[in-house]
Amino acid sequence: MTAPAEAANEDALPEFPMPRACPFSPPAAYTGLRETEPVSRARLKVDGKPTWLVTRHDLYKKVLGDSRVSANLKLPGYPLQVPVPQETLQSVPLTFLSMDPPDHTVQRRMLAPEFSVRRMRELRERVQQIVDQQIDDMLAKGCDGPVDLVTALALPVPSLVICELLGVPYDDHARFEQWAWAIMNHEVSDEDRGLAHYELDRYVDGLVTAKESEPGDDMISRLIAFNRETPAVEHSDIVSMSKLMLVTGHETTANMIALGVLALLEHPGQLAAVREEPELMPRAVEELLRLFSISDAGTARVAMEDIELGGVTIRAGDGILPLNNAANHDESVFPDADRLDVRREARSHVAFGYGVHQCVGQNLARMELDVVYSTLLRRIPTLRLATPAEELRFKDDAIVWGLYELPVTW
């Protein structure tokens, strides 16, 4: 067992995050690390702190299934992805994503019924209506030239869906989309990011407060009612859960819609396969989720005890980044992993994380992607890029990979 690299020159460590050379592949360095040093040291770009990177699929699952790691971002060793002043970090309440059991377990049990497979079957017809309406609008706009798929379809669909689920007025979507962008962007100033958090907190607190006195048929109202019958959390916890669902419920799916369409348009053989065999779409969804792994480092952890992993010792207090994108391109699990293959059986991917913190909304994301991709390809069979892929602007400045715009025509 080798000792951790406490004595190594931390200035010589590779910097994280690492840039992608190809939008459809992870950073090239991941391959070498996975093969020769699957548990390795890196230096965080945001604050210069050293952390551990985990790049192999089996070790990724091992560390995220270990009760000796914590998701608590207030711990000193936690590998933050955006700069947050310590005084701010310590003053804000933890969200559902950053809680450890048993607090995390309590909130997950409250949220899980809202995203069950049965609930998604019930919602599918309404999601189909939303998608059809957005495509109707796209087709009307397309008479005048290229249409940006991000603003016309990828962003409105999940925003409309999560607004209806939560009971949030869609007329406010521009505000919460802007707040979400500021919160998740590497290059936003501390002041602007803090202001976005503050304004979003106030907005969601107002919604929850209103529903406490005038409930509706929506998720926030059901969380309030459940908590009144079986008190488990505070008002601030329901605000926190609702805020998290609002932000993550539209941002990640919106990015996957745009990226998935781009990938299919850039791989005509794969596009032809799902058009000729629509029953392949569920597999295609899983493969696209695996291929992009848009939240690469959304599974950050801190070791609470010394842990032996992949031939090294991770000391208590060390930060750990199990990398979704590296694990999902592990050739021992996914042969020819950088190739898009809509026939691949990719359900063992970890795009939604792993363990107790695995994404609670994954059933909703899968269903939305299935409906959007299937409907778009069926209704606009001549869809094509209006701008070469190499000229598109990707979200290199954000913690969630995506596209700022995707001009298309037909």
UniProtKB/TrEMBL annotation:
Cited Gene3D superfamilies: Cytochrome P450 (1.10.630.10)
Molecular functions per Gene Ontology: oxidoreductase activity
Highest taxon above the source species: Bacteria
Xref: InterPro entries: Cyt_P450, Cyt_P450_B, Cyt_P450_CS, Cyt_P450_sf
Pfam families in alphabetical order: p450
EC number(s) stated in the UniProt entry for this protein: 1.14.-.-
Keywords: Heme, Iron, Metal-binding, Monooxygenase, Oxidoreductase
PANTHER family named among the record's database cross-references: CYTOCHROME P450 YJIB-RELATED, P450, PUTATIVE (EUROFUNG)-RELATED
Family to which the UniProt record says this protein belongs: Belongs to the cytochrome P450 family.
Protein name: Cytochrome P450
Origin species: Streptomyces flavovirens
